[in-house]
Design a protein that fits this description.
three-stranded parallel sheet, Rossmann fold, disordered C terminus, 117 residues, alpha/beta, single chain
Length: 117
């Protein structure tokens, strides 16, 4: 999934950096330069919700989108209350992801774009 998102985001013109874990992202120099973060809810080590809370607590909140293959309504509600932009269940559409990204990047969301996403 990480590789597929990397390819998709690059094909849409985004500058992308992928990480194998939340911890590797936090150790990188990219945290302060990240405009929007896509994180899986369930990752080895620190989970997506834990990462989001860590960033908020550290004073470096980043617009965040969660993706998951294991939807849990309690986790979704908690994440959205904590300020997460989106909670997407795999498989999700490119349009769903782009809608969340536009919100995270402060761009208007005009719905489905012609000719695909």
């Amino acid at each position: 999934m990480r590789d597929a998102l990397d390819v998709l985001m690059r094909s849409l013109g985004f500058s992308v950096q992928v990480f194998s874990s939340a911890e590797s992202f936090l150790k990188s120099q990219r945290v302060s330069r990240t405009a929007c973060l896509i994180a899986d809810v369930q990752m080895p080590g620190m989970t997506g919700p834990d990462l989001h809370q860590h960033l908020v607590s550290a004073g470096t909140p980043i617009p965040t989108i969660f993706i998951t293959a294991f939807p849990d309504e309690r986790v979704r509600k908690r994440a959205l209350r904590a300020g997460v932009l989106g909670y997407l269940t795999k498989p999700f559409t490119e349009d769903e992801l782009m809608s969340c990204l536009r919100k995270g990047l402060g761009q208007p969301d005009h719905g489905r774009r012609s000719g695909g996403a």
